[in-house]
């Protein structure tokens, strides 16, 4: 099944509606992604930020239907790509979509690339899965793909193995594999993790160039707000499996609203400030088993928490400026259910 049908004008490329993804712990399922909804438009770059354990990667694995079988599952919600439901597809159907229509760059290229197969074999595997192509054509295309992502000596590299390449080169190979069939949506999960600063900048520049040349939409998962500022049009901030803020990148940096977002911003080191101790967020993200049952999940760590925050669950609501935020601080001026204004 291919989902590369023409999009209606102004229609989103990806729609995630009320998604709940859970993992089994001691025989009981706990939500790692909790009632999440968002859209990605054609040619848009959407950043998803938050600490480790906030559900960012789980959400991407849900979209790709790569959750570990028997442990993780989509409990409810919809995932539509080009108007076609992905969440109910069989393994055979989704395999025709992965790599061709939607592709993903994983966090750690050394564990994502198979160490016993050559670079060329792993590139050609994607091509054979989705194209009618000869071995000679696949090899030539693999070399061209390696060259397109800035790898020198591609004719030699195509026959080498992952352990023979540096971290930056392995990440470039992962990008080449992801763009081999020119997908319309690329999910990049921490694409610069474990790379030195110079290589990080090169990888980001490469992703930006590929996105613009191929008119791709990109979901960029990161904990690095500097990467978000460099790459993204829109930003989703996640905490404990929920979206707590969503807005355009300029509004997020100039007018952050949620206390969690403000603390994330405050933790960014500033070159013009001479401080001995960097700002940090107290506490940790609650585990799936210890997730608060009621109220705001950030309440225990929030410096602006009110009494109601532990009992009333805030809803993600859009302000007059189109800025979406999930916090009772922005609901206090609104009439509560059953209360007169």
Fold and architecture overview:
- The chain is of the alpha/beta class and 341 residues long.
- The protein has a domain at 14-240: P-loop containing nucleotide triphosphate hydrolases (Rossmann fold), CATH 3.40.50.
- It is built from 11 helices and 12 strands.
- It has helices at residues 56-64, 91-97, 109-112, 119-130, 135-148, 154-157, 167-179, 197-214, 225-231, 249-254, 259-266; strands spanning 14-25, 28-40, 45-49, 72-81, 84-85, 102-105, 185-189, 217-222, 234-239, 242-248, 317-318, 324-325.
- Helix 4 packs across helix 5 and helix 7 packs parallel to helix 8 (197-214).
- The longest helix is centred in the middle third of the chain and has 18 residues, at 197-214.
- The protein is globular, with a radius of gyration of 21 Å.
Strand order of the largest sheet: 6-7-8-3-9-10-12-11
CATH topology of the domain at 14-240: Rossmann fold
The chain-level structural class is: alpha/beta
| Poorly predicted segments | 333-341
Key descriptive features of the protein:
single chain; 341 residues; alpha/beta; Rossmann fold; 8-stranded mixed β-sheet; 4-stranded antiparallel β-sheet; 11 helices; 12 strands; 30% helix; disordered C terminus
């Amino acid at each position: 099944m291919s989902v590369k049908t023409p999009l209606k004008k102004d229609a989103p490329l990806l729609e995630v509606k009320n998604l709940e993804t859970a993992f089994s712990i001691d025989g009981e399922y706990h939500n790692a992604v909790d009632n999440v909804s968002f859209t990605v438009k054609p040619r848009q770059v959407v950043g998803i930020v938050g600490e480790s354990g906030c559900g960012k990667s789980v959400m991407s694995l849900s979209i790709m239907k790569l959750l570990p079988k028997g442990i993780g599952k989509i409990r409810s919600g919809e995932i539509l790509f080009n108007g076609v439901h992905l969440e109910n597809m069989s393994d055979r159907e989704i395999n025709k979509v992965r790599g061709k229509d939607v592709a993903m760059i994983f966090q750690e290229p050394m564990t994502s690339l198979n160490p016993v197969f050559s670079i060329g074999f792993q590139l050609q595997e994607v091509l054979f899965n989705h194209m009618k192509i000869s071995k000679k054509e696949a090899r030539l295309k693999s070399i061209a793909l390696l060259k397109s992502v800035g790898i020198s000596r591609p004719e030699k590299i195509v026959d080498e193995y992952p352990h023979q390449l540096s971290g930056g080169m392995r990440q470039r190979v992962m990008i080449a594999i992801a763009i081999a069939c020119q997908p319309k949506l690329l999910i990049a999960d921490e694409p610069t993790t474990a790379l030195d600063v110079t290589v990080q900048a090169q990888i980001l520049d490469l992703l930006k160039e590929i996105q613009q040349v191929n008119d791709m939409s990109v979901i960029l998962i990161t904990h690095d707000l500097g990467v978000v500022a460099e790459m993204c049009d829109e930003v989703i901030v996640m905490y404990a499996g929920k979206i707590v803020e969503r807005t355009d990148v300029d509004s997020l940096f100039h007018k952050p609203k949620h206390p969690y977002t403000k603390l994330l911003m405050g933790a960014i080191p500033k070159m013009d400030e001479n401080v001995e101790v960097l700002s940090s967020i107290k506490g940790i993200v609650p585990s799936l088993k210890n997730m608060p049952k009621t109220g705001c999940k950030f309440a225990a760590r929030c410096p602006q928490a009110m009494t109601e925050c532990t009992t009333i669950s805030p809803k993600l609501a859009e302000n007059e400026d189109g800025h979406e935020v999930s916090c009772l601080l922005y609901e206090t001026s609104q009439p509560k259910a059953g209360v007169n204004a």
